[in-house]
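Q: Hi! First time doing this. I have a protein sequence and I read that you can turn it into a structure. Is that right? Here it is:
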Amino acid sequence: MTIKIASYGSCITRDNFNSKLNKNYKERYECVATSLHASLISLFSQEFTYDGTKIDFIDEENVHNEADKLKTIEELTKSFFHDLKVKQPDYLIMDFYTDVFLGVFFSQDRFFTNNGYISKTSFFNELPEKFHLKIERSPSDYFGLLLPSIAKFMDFLKKEVPNCEVIINKGRFSNRLLDSEGKVSYLPSYQHYNDIWDKLDNYMISKYDLKFIELDHQKYYISPKPTIGWDVFQLHYHDNYYHDFLEQLNTVTQIDKNAEVN
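A: Yes, that's right. Below is the predicted 3D structure, encoded as structure tokens:
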């Protein structure tokens, strides 16, 4: 029987469950629910009605508009919660790239993730007085919104998905790029974001007594041509990163399995 996995956060978590990177992962895992680039601040903000025709993507250069439209609708409808309740995953793996790097917009007490999807729609452009809130600019304000949202989410999991164990993925940015000839070059450093990420992960692990996966990011390099086809970015690693992540996850799940037997 495969282990049911839910993924929350970004590609640094979700890409581990892609056959192009870990070709045999389905022998052990099934990814049953995904939330991509959606802050818990947005997912726990007040619900509202919207005109579906306004989720139209006015940017003609947006070649991924169908996928982006789907992710936008998933955030607005908060469908991730429904998926978790229905699928009842064994593990939820979380990373906080979205809050560390992207932040949120708010307009009239409604919050939306600054993920580059919603902001390309007529719906978003017609909202009045939009404000962008980022964690590095206003940490006290941001944490004042994020931490209560995290608490609500953990309470939701306890009540609605009681057999799901949360694992924090301590993903981090790197600026070291390794080309096919073994030459190392350097992208702009995002160390200040890593410092914030450290604090947020450590809070979660300590507050809720969570397990975590932590790779030594000094051992890995950014890929100039990511296997999945992503652009070069400080979070898109060479394939060995994802292989090693899965090995750590295998260790965690095997320890749990052995504990159940004993």
